[in-house]
Amino acid sequence: MKLPVSGRATATAVFAAITLLATGSIAGAAPAPGSGTIAAAPDLPVANVKAHLAQLQSIATANGGNRAHGRTGYKASLDYVKAKLDAAGYTTNIQQFTSSGRTGYNLVADWPGGDTGQVVMAGSHLDSVTAGAGINDNGSGSAAVLETALAVARAGYHPTKHLRFGWWGAEELGMVGSRYYVNSLSSANRARISGYLNFDMIGSPNPGYFVYDDDPAIEKTFKDYFTGLGIPTEIETEGDGRSDHAPFKSAGVPVGGLFSGADYIKTAAQAAKWGGTAGQAFDRCYHSSCDTTANINDTALDRNADALAYAIWALSS
Prior knowledge:
Layout: H1 46-62, H2 72-88, E1 91-99, E2 102-111, E3 115-125, H3 135-155, E4 161-168, H4 176-184, H5 187-191, E5 193-199, E6 210-211, H6 216-229, E7 234-235, H7 245-250, E8 255-259, H8 268-274, H9 298-316
Parallel strand pairs: 3-4, 3-5, 5-8, 6-7
Antiparallel strand pairs: 1-2, 2-4, 6-8
């Protein structure tokens, strides 16, 4: 996640339910888990998500310790994800761009079928900073999006809407890859995206449970899921406008997503409801060399990955 150095403030809790959908929202936000009114999303095995993270760690270790834009570790990460998607039956496309004098890449994968006039898209940035492997930031989001895409294929899911997944380059330089993708779309193709869901840092070691509040229908879908688990959420403010949802939002696409915290400090009230350690950052290894596979909270990763899958099924059915 690309965040400024200054201006840190604790995210504000929001408990009021949103009942009205904004113009352009995805209609028909999903009910709470277990209600039986939508196609059932699979329970993603957290071991599968962690296996992807282990591969990203190995790639970083073999390529100078990072997976940053323009470095061999980034391209190897993209090749790993693409190979998994190609084998699962996706139509994949690599989009090339240049930033800071280095070549960058986005990977976009489309699942065959569904109404291409209504595209539900989920994405994450695949690059790390140069300081480390970037396993929470943002291997966690990238791995969960990948495993959700693979779960779609395993289930032989045939959604009403068209499904698309994206992995963005050079986010750490200012959302360069995602902005390039959005700008490359015609206005008609941008209008076909019913919603973009962003996942940037979802396995923080001292986690919170934060939901983007940009689009009411998408927000409600995620909140309903966590309510079904008995987990309170808060509005996401730490990374507001500073991850890959921002270019989509600026282009008028409804956006939403999940986040488990970066270097904001967990309060006593947050620790009381979520566990973990008050007075410490949600991720003390944010943008550091210690952001390795040891820097992941399995429970947060599991819950957020399952919420991702739930939203994809709910919003595309």
